[in-house]
Structure formats: structure tokens, C-alpha cells
């Protein structure tokens, strides 16, 4: 289902574990910070709405989405139950978009494979700024909310 047919901020609290006992790490790219800050708000709001404690949420900034890989690796060492990697990559004039998107995707995938801490992929890979606006609290909801809910569910799974 494409995002246009699915509001990213919708969730049913009855289907989500209480997050009060979980610790979360959030790593946020500074590139396109008006967007990433909106994603961060969505993630934190969802975590708190589902019972997470503010003191159990650690937030770090990194320069760009490519640095989410190393930042998430270091965040895992903070003994958190899940990490949320937040970025916004927008197509420019060159192929750099392709390499950043592929690199961060593969890097976060590798962390999920090689460590025992789930790293949630909250990286917008958009053609235009408007698409990013629409997905960070705009008409399609907030991918940060989606990521926060995913982090809770994966933190619960990790304890099985
Ligand atoms: N163009 C975007 C970037 N580029 C920067 C890279 O992520 C990285 O910081 C740089 O290559 C140094 O290693 N980053 C984004 O997050 N979004 C962009 O649109
Ligand atoms: C994703 C990027 O790195 C890109 O926005 C940079 O823009 P450009 O391809 O015009 O250098």
C-alpha cells in the first residue's frame, strides 16, 4: 500500500505494548532539519503516548543521513531496547541521492543483522521537499510516529 493510501500517524493503542519499561535511542540527521525535527517530534509523541518515559529517550544529532549508521551503532552501546534512525534525503542534481540512500539503507540493515538491538529505518527518500513535508506531519501523517510505534513493537519482540 502506498503512503498516499495509508496515514503514517494512524495506530491503535490497543495493539501496542506499554513502553514504560523500554529505553529508546533516537539518532537524527541535521540535513533538512525542518523535516527531521518534525519526524523527531512525531516519534517522541508516539513513544510518550504509548507509555514511554522522557528520561528513557536519548536523542543525538549527526550531520547527515549517511552518519546515521555510525550514530546508531554508538547508540546501541547505550543499552537501549531500540534505536530510531531519522533522516531526510531529497533528490538533487546528481546521483549522490542514490548513493546516500543505498548506503544508509544497507548500513541500517547491517546493524539489524549484526546486533541484537532493532534499528528502525525512519529515513525519508523523497523526490521533492513537498513530499517530505507531506510525510513529516503533513497530509500523509508523520513517518516519525510510524517509527516510534515500530520501535515499541520491536523492543517487545527483542525480549521474547
Ligand atoms: N543530500 C543529503 C545528504 N547528504 C549528506 C550525507 O548524508 C553525508 O552527511 C555526507 O555525504 C558526508 O558523509 N544527507 C541527508 O541526510 N539528506 C540529503 O538530502
Ligand atoms: C541527496 C544529496 O546528497 C543531494 O541532495 C545533494 O544534491 P546534489 O545531488 O545536487 O549535489
From TrEMBL:
Gene Ontology molecular function: 6,7-dimethyl-8-ribityllumazine synthase activity
SUPFAM superfamilies tied to this protein: Lumazine synthase (SSF52121)
Ligand binding ((2S)-2-hydroxy-3-oxobutyl phosphate): 93-94, 135
Keywords, comma-separated and alphabetical: Riboflavin biosynthesis, Transferase
Active site, UniProt feature: 96
EC number: 2.5.1.78
Record lineage: Bacteria, Pseudomonadati, Bacteroidota, Flavobacteriia, Flavobacteriales
Domain of life: Bacteria
Residues annotated to bind 5-amino-6-(D-ribitylamino)uracil: 31, 65-67, 88-90, 121
Protein name (record): 6,7-dimethyl-8-ribityllumazine synthase
Group of enzyme by EC: transferase
NCBIfam families for this protein: lumazine-synth
The family this protein is said to belong to: Belongs to the DMRL synthase family.
InterPro entries assigned to the protein according to its UniProt record, in alphabetical order: LS, LS/RS, LS/RS_sf
UniProt catalytic activity: (2S)-2-hydroxy-3-oxobutyl phosphate + 5-amino-6-(D-ribitylamino)uracil = 6,7-dimethyl-8-(1-D-ribityl)lumazine + phosphate + 2 H2O + H(+)
Organism: Psychroserpens luteus
Pathway: Cofactor biosynthesis; riboflavin biosynthesis; riboflavin from 2-hydroxy-3-oxobutyl phosphate and 5-amino-6-(D-ribitylamino)uracil: step 1/2
The protein's role, per its UniProt record: Catalyzes the formation of 6,7-dimethyl-8-ribityllumazine by condensation of 5-amino-6-(D-ribitylamino)uracil with 3,4-dihydroxy-2-butanone 4-phosphate. This is the penultimate step in the biosynthesis of riboflavin.
HAMAP family in alphabetical order: Lumazine_synth
